[in-house]
């Protein structure tokens, strides 16, 4: 029999493990997918199919339908996290940004999260400010490396994606979202529609039938990278601080780089390996800061938290 404490801890551990490993592998899956799929179209299909499947499953299980207010909130978060956050990363990888480099850039999400948290009165500690400064140094190193120095647009897209994802993560804990996994389903539905519209407006079309590997990559992104991982992420955002929920960012780059180097033939220069170490160290420092100064941060955050409805 599991103790009461373990019943609460195990879902948190399982959700974090899902984000650490599964989301780390999605960068490689995106890289494989965009070899045949137009980027916005692929991202749109990914979230639209995953959203429809998860929504239908929850409705059949008797889950309460979102209210209009919750649809608006879920749509806002879905656009910030998925349509802009993930969509821009997919476009960047289509523009030949290596999957490992993309993951290292996205590792800055917890640093952006700290900055956006200040909008709601959360004061950062000196340790967290040190982590932010260290992360900025890592970004500079990464953008002067071989893979991004000739691709400033790709670097800008991923930075914008990271900022959008961080802002959406902070905002999501302060607005009334649908309960449980219905939040992820609603967000994916809205994001999928937005991305498909963007795909049509940008003139994307299929020149030929995607390869089997690209279909398999899309399937993996739908089931594991979307339905499973996004539900786990929304669970964490409602149960832990945003910077803890985004702590997956210091594991994802390692997983993504290893997959990219091992299976996609990607290479990183010495400066880029150094940037990886610096950015991961910055995120670890930020996470430690949250634990070391957790009592102070909790007192500061309490007035800003919106009660669930």
Description:
Residues 16-143, 153-287 form the EamA domain. It is found in: Cell membrane. This protein has 309 residues and is mainly alpha-helical. The chain has one domain (21-304). 74% of the residues lie in helices and 0% in strands. It has helices at residues 4-33, 39-60, 68-94, 99-106, 109-117, 126-143, 152-172, 182-201, 212-239, 242-245, 252-263, 270-292, 294-301. The chain is globular.
Terminus-to-terminus distance: 33 Å
Number of helices: 13
Largest sheet: none
> Which structural class do the helices and strands define?
mainly alpha
What number of structural domains do the residues give? 1
Strand content: under 5%
Secondary-structure element order, as H and E? HHHHHHHHHHHHH
- Global shape: globular
- Helix content percent band: over 70%
Low-confidence stretches: 295-309
Rounded average pLDDT = 83
Would you count the extended β strands for me? 0
| CA radius of gyration | 19 Å
């Amino acid at each position: 029999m599991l103790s009461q404490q373990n019943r609460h801890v195990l879902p948190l551990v399982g959700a974090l493990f899902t984000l650490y490993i599964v989301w780390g592998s999605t960068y490689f899956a995106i890289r494989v997918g965009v070899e045949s799929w137009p980027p916005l179209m692929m991202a749109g299909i990914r979230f639209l199919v995953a959203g429809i499947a998860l929504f239908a499953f929850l409705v059949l299980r008797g889950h309460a339908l979102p209210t209009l207010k919750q649809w608006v909130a879920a749509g806002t978060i879905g656009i910030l996290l998925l349509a802009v956050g993930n969509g821009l990363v997919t476009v960047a990888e289509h523009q030949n940004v290596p999957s490992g480099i993309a993951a290292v850039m996205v590792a800055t999400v917890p640093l952006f999260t700290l900055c956006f948290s200040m909008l709601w009165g959360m004061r950062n500690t000196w340790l967290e400010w040190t982590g932010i400064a260290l992360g900025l140094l890592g970004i500079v190193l990464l953008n002067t490396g071989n893979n991004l120095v000739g691709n400033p647009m790709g670097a800008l897209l991923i930075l914008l994606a990271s900022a959008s994802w961080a802002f959406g993560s902070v905002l999501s804990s302060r607005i009334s979202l649908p309960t449980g996994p219905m939040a992820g389903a609603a967000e994916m539905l809205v994001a999928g529609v937005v991305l498909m519209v963007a795909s049509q407006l940008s003139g994307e079309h299929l020149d030929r039938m995607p390869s089997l590997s690209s279909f398999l990559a899309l399937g993996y992104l739908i089931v594991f990278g979307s339905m499973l991982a996004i539900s786990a992420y929304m669970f964490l955002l409602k149960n832990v601080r945003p910077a803890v929920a985004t702590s997956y960012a210091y594991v994802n780059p390692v997983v993504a780089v290893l997959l990219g180097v091992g299976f996609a033939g990607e290479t990183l220069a010495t400066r880029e390996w150094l940037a990886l170490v610096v950015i991961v160290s910055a995120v670890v420092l930020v996470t430690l800061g949250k634990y070391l100064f957790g009592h102070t941060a909790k007192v500061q955050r309490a007035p800003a938290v919106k009660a669930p409805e």
